[in-house]
Known about the structure:
Layout: H1 6-19, H2 24-30, H3 39-43
Protein name: Integrase
GO molecular function, one term: DNA binding
Amino acid sequence: MPRRSPRSLRAGEATVAYAAGVPVSVIAAHGRWAPNSPVVLGHIRAVDRWRDNAMRNVGL
């Protein structure tokens, strides 16, 4: 069984909430991060790297 850490659990719930459209400020409050903390963004992982790719609609 893979090991789970408190950070992976927090990242998992932050990622799922973000994918569901929950605002980052609400995720930060729930995770007890400061409202403008960049740390919360580090906990949100790419759910679909191709869908969220910044270069997707550039035409390259």
